Amino acid sequence: MTDRRPLLFTLAGIVATLVYFGAAEFIAGAFSATSAPLLILGQTIIPLVPTAMIKAAISIFGTNDKLALVITLVIVGAILGGVIGRVGLHRRTLSFVLLIGLGILPVVLLVSTGGSLLDAVPALGGVVLGCAAYVGLIRLGDGRELRAEDSQDRDRSADIDGQPDSDRRAFFGLVAGLSAVGIAAIAAGQSASILARNAAGAVTKLVLPRPATSAPKIPAGAELDIDGLAPIMTPTDDFYRIDTALIPPSVDASSWSLRIHGMVDEEVTITMAQLLELPLEEHRVSLTCVSNEVGGDLVGNATWLGYPVRDLLKRAQPNDEADMVLSTSDDGFTASTPLEVLTDDRASLLAVGMNGEPLPRDHGFPARLVVPGLYGFVSATKWVTELEVTRFADKEAYWTKRGWSTHGPVLVASRVDVPRAGVHVSPNKDGQIITAGMAWAQHVGIAEVRVRIDNGDWHTAELSEELTTDTWRQWRCHFDDVEPGTHTVTVRAVDKDGNEQIAERRPAIPGSATGLHERDFTVD
Ligand SMILES: Nc1nc2c(c(=O)[nH]1)N[C@H]1C(S)=C(S)[C@@H](COP(=O)(O)O)O[C@H]1N2
Ligand SMILES: [Mo]
């Protein structure tokens, strides 16, 4: 008869891990959400993961990348738990040392980075309950083994097949029950932390003043109104989110301040109350992520309300040798922005509002930077608390340390939204196939968009009316007499400086992916 005990001990270890994570999430919910082991582990791991892997995860999971991380952690933890559980078959003491050691690892990580002892409670509670589950299960699964301490003797410790059916049923029942409770507690803990952060966002809601300068009304011609085409203004809920925070920092607006220091004549600190009293300006600016793939959706357009960074810097009086501003967020992220981009006449803002509302927590509440013409990683610091006037030669920002460029000017780009990939389309009543999409070259502006089907001639697309050179534009192009069958549509934009979109396929690192976006579709 096969020995089932290795399986039983492995299962007991897996269940112990699920109970551990679940209990800890549950207790963390009652104390402080920041001390859940999954959160601590996630936040410890993110900065260590190679950039290429993070970017791959973002491209696979999109904005679910953090959920994917949590699930991966649970799975890896369960596998480890299984291995340790199996070790306990012959080396009981070692298995407990490993279970307890790994279980309190998050506490060690947290306390070493300055957490309080109260933060240790969730993990410790998890360890106690996880070990209890492990002991209970192996006792049930193999009662005699437990009595025969560290026994290697197969004869004395019969496997579960030698036991009554009721014990076996009880064992597997307990395995299933505890796993279900553990997983449910993990899920509940994750959703509780989401609820908690939404609630926190509501409590600290800011009342924004009326803009001193409003953005002009959106002209009718700015929207081409084609089914499937991205709207010219991106609704806040659909706006892409990219940052390194597992849970976005919760910053209290009333205690927030921004400090401008470094190579300046006059150090300046501004509080939220002071900021809201300044004449705030509204500007429409499209934001893009450098890791956006060709044709990707890490780009959006919003109306931002804020105070010009140029005017804040004027108060501080940067020294002549300075050439960069290192902005730091509440969570330690940094971005390096060329000083001249923050002092020229463009609409670089210390923003507090997005689309008529205070910034949502995900997008930097209570204040962030928005800089037209640069990728977000070198300019758009959310939860910003510090501007250090410095030099590129002296300081390096978060992503630059990880292999990305120092300066990040946006490259002219475009994508096809219509037709959607792989769809079947029929010509409209005029016998035409309609193609449409978006094009952007922030702060330079889009001059022209060219579109072609297969290897045909390039057609010049019709463009939506430009809001400002800082925002993207929609384009639309129709084709007559497209033969039935499968075709490829390709788009290429040209900016107002005459730069053609780079056709060569290049990966995102160090300074944005290049290549022309193509879509395949079938004409019926
Ligand atoms: N604090 C902080 N700010 C940040 C980041 C970050 O990781 N942390 N990511 C930057 C990057 S890479 C981009 S593309 C933009 C995205 O802004 P959004 O999430 O509001 O779309 O935020 C920037 N600001
Ligand atoms: Mo980004």
UniProtKB/TrEMBL annotation:
Pfam families: Oxidored_molyb. The chain crosses the membrane at residues 6-31, 67-89, 96-114, 120-138, 170-189. Keywords: Membrane, Transmembrane, Transmembrane helix. Residues 249-398 form the Oxidoreductase molybdopterin-binding domain. GO terms for molecular function: heme binding; molybdopterin cofactor binding; sulfite oxidase activity. GO terms for biological process: sulfur compound metabolic process. This is Molybdopterin-dependent oxidoreductase.
